[in-house]
Amino acid sequence: MHPPLTLHRHPMCAEIIEAFQKCHVDHPVKKFFGECTDLKIKLDQCFRQEKALKRKANFEESKKFKERLQAYKREMAEENKGP
């Protein structure tokens, strides 16, 4: 199963999505017998790549957030020690 095939949510896979949807329209019965399977495999691979990129970006963002949080905690600890 794949996520909804909306082009604006998957710009990286737009060409493959369009080809896959066209295949389903052009072959309404053959799609059940493997006519569009090659496109489906390419689409799944594209979604995996897209997810890996998002996962990496989220990880980098969380590292930056953790660093800012640690800096803030150190700053607060120094202020509380004070005079």
From TrEMBL:
Its main location: mitochondrion. It is found in: Mitochondrion. InterPro entries: Cyt_c_biogenesis_Cmc1-like. The keyword Oxidoreductase does not apply. One of its GO terms (cellular component) is mitochondrion. The keyword Mitochondrion applies. It comes from the Eukaryota. Keywords: Disulfide bond, Mitochondrion. Belongs to the CMC family. PANTHER family: COX ASSEMBLY MITOCHONDRIAL PROTEIN. This is COX assembly mitochondrial protein.
